[in-house]
Amino acid sequence: MKKYFKSSDIQISSHDDKVQAQDKKIQYYTVCRRRNIKSFQRRLFRMKQSIISIGLILLSMVVLYAKATSTCSCSCGGHESTTYQTPLVKQCTFKSLNDDRNKGQIETCDFQKAHSNSALRVTYQGDLRMISCSNGRCCRRWFITINGKECSSPAPIDAHMYAGGVANLNVHRPGTLDGFCNNIAKGKVTVGLSVGKCNNWSYDVGDAYTCSRSVCRLIIEEILSMQ
Prior knowledge:
Layout: H1 7-68, E1 71-74, E2 82-85, E3 88-95, E4 104-113, E5 119-131, E6 139-146, E7 149-150, E8 158-162, E9 172-181, E10 187-196, E11 207-210, E12 215-223
Antiparallel strand pairs: 1-2, 3-12, 4-10, 5-9, 5-11, 5-12, 6-7, 6-8, 6-10
């Protein structure tokens, strides 16, 4: 027995298919939209993290700059207040120079002086040696130079080493030269360590040695105000 369908049944079936297809499209677009929203939210979150990181870095730089240029006013014992600035310091290190010269410049360190009315504190720390001699004539002088000249305000920064009584005594000692120097123009300054003849010494004799098998250093500090 054959079964026949009415045309109205076919139309209903076709209409249902269209509705289902449309629902599937809506579901597909809804899923895609949700995925796009989640992807956008992730990108936005990463962007916020990057902005926060950059902000923290900039804040740290501002704080460091403020510390480097900060000033403070101090008053002691009823005297007038004086403004002090954070000192500028540089260190040059030299490893195992093993410098055996008896005269001349041993090493230099460049420094950028920021103020014309400031003082420089210069320190050498490291190995020094002079071989002794039995005739009592051996002496060597280590001294600091600034732009090729010794400090004259207030005085040279130097140290003598005399060794006599026993011949050929080869003893290395830790040595320090330290002092302040005024009246130095601002700008590039070349600080040097030199060795030579002792002041007020008749003889120009002495076997010197500097910075043997160790690290020696020149430390330069700019000080804005001194008593």
